[in-house]
Amino acid sequence: MTANSKRSTFTGLTMVLVTLVGCGLRSDGEPTALSVPRDVFPSEVAETNETPLLPNATLHPVYFLRDDVLVEIQRPLPPPVFLDAPLNNLLEGPTETEAESGFVSAIPAGTEVVDVALMRNNTISIHLNQTFFEIEGAQRIRASAQLVFTASALTNDTQGVVFFLEGEPVQLPNGEGSIEEVLEGRLPAPLTINDYSALAPVTFKE
After folding, report:
1. Which of 138, 164, 136, 168 is nearest to 151 (CA)?
2. Which positions ≥6 away from 67 have C-beta within 8 Å?
C-alpha cells in the first residue's frame, strides 16, 4: 500500500469515528441509554393499568368487602348509564389494584344480571341467574348486601330490592341471616340497606 493510500484510509476512518460521536453513538458498538421524559407514559396508567376516566363519565357507587365490612367505591361509567350498568360493573369484581389492597367480592364468578327494573313505589327488581343462588350461609348474606347497597344507589328514595330467579321471586337473607316466609302469590318484602347495617359500609378514599 502506498503512502497516499494509507493517508486516505486513515482520513476515512477518522471521519467515520467523528460521525459516530456526533450522532451520540459509542464507537465500541454498545447501546447508549436515553432518558424518557416522565410525561410520555403517565404514571397513573403505567403503574396501575387502570382505564383512564372517560370523557363525560359519571361516578356510581359499587360495594365490595374488605375485612368483612362493606366499602363504597366510586366507579366512572360512560354515558348513557342504565340501571344495569353499576350492577354489571359490580359483578366484574375488584380491579387488580383493589384486590391487592384487600378488596374482595362475595358474589360468585359467573353471576349474571338477567334483568333489572324500577317497580312501583321505587322498588328495584333484580333477576339473577342460577349461579348466584348456589352460595349459602355468610357468603350469601355478604353477596346480598353488596347487591342491595349497589342497587339502592341507582335511584333516589329507593324503597328496597326484590330478587327473582327464572321469573319467580326469591327472598334472600338479611344481615342476621333471617329469611322472610312469603305466602304463595305474594312478593317478599323488599330488602333495604337497613337490613345489612351490621356490615357498616364505609367510603373508600385512595
Report:
1. 164
2. 102
Please choose, from the candidates 205, 199, 204, 195, the residue with its C-alpha nearest in 3D space to the C-alpha of residue 70: 199
- Angle at CA of residue 56, ends 55 and 60, nearest 5°: 115
- Closest to 144 in 3D by CA, of 118, 180, 184, 119: 180
pLDDT in tens, 119-174: 988 999 999 999 999 999 999 999 999 999 999 999 889 999 999 999 999 999 99
Encode pLDDT of 55-72 as tens digits.
788 999 999 999 999 999
Cell 321471586 belongs to: 169
Domain ranges of the chain: 3-34, 53-203
Which amino acid appears at position 141 of this protein? I
